[in-house]
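Q: Give me a backbone?
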Amino acid sequence: MTSILQNVQGVESVNVQFAKNTASVKASDGLEPQKLIQALKRPYSGKLIRVNKSQTKVTSVDNNTEAQVERKTQQKGQNSISRDDISAIDRPNFVSVSEAKISSDSHVLGVRVEKEFRAYNLNLLNLHEVVNDRIGKTSFAVVWSPSSNTALVVNRTYNGKVLHFEASDELVNAALILTDQETNSRWSIMEGKAISGKMAGTKLSIIKNSTKTSWAGWKNKYPKSKVLSVDGKEEGENLYKDYFKSSEGLEGLRASDYRLRTKKPIFAFQASKKKYAIAHSSIVGGKIIKFGKAHIFLYRKNRADLQDSTYAYLSLGKGFQKKQGQWFSLDTKKKVKLSGIPSLSRELKPFKGFDTFWYNWSLTHPEVEILK
């Protein structure tokens, strides 16, 4: 049996919790996980638990086991962000585009809600990961998981109740797990639903009117938008710069499925109850995927930045066609919008999916099918 404390360095002791039962052990004990499995409440489907931005591999644990590992001492020389430093923004402040001080090549997540445009600098979100916001009657949360390069905008209203989301103290498969203050449920962005608590099984409701793009591109296209400002700053430090350049997963985590490289950038989605992945490199210049009567159009420009969003549209009609280097919708007979916020119409709709890394998606969904 493999020790649950494998590869833990510089840690004197940990608390290992399986559902209701907790055991405190030393790193030298070589704890066998199966000896602690009892009083289980919910399944553990990941390969990784992270608390305070540290990670411990959990091996030889069945799918009915949940393990939470709390490190009592931090690893010396660790330069990652402490989970204790991550705090959601519940009362966001905004400035105008002309007032915002952001580097031209720095990326923002731009959203459109009830005809209003707002931008959130990704580097500024590194220390927050969640912004609980509201425009008009729409309560929504801006979610950024830097370790999986995933940005989402989700509704906050479920069963008539407005939730306040925040980043939990853990990652599963190096991807963010959300919690909500009202029910203390845990929500997986890779699974797209609540995985425990009162809201277990409830799907995250995604707001599609969003895109990741450079600040230069955003401010030129939406000069009247509002820009998130925190303590007088609109741009944060690029704390994940080295991570995004590296071919390694977070703290050495690797994909167990070798069909693609661990950090291969992909567009991930679900169709017909199946999980799919397609490499960014396969959709440069545009690609059409057919599922029955559905036509899915995916597009990335040549030499797109890693943090640029993939454009994804769904047609249940005639589909798409490329003419003289331009992509057209055969339903609207107009050019497909491939900059800024995706266009909306009855015939042409943004397709649900998101950008991430292969290892984040494949570790969560081992049955994933790769499209080429």
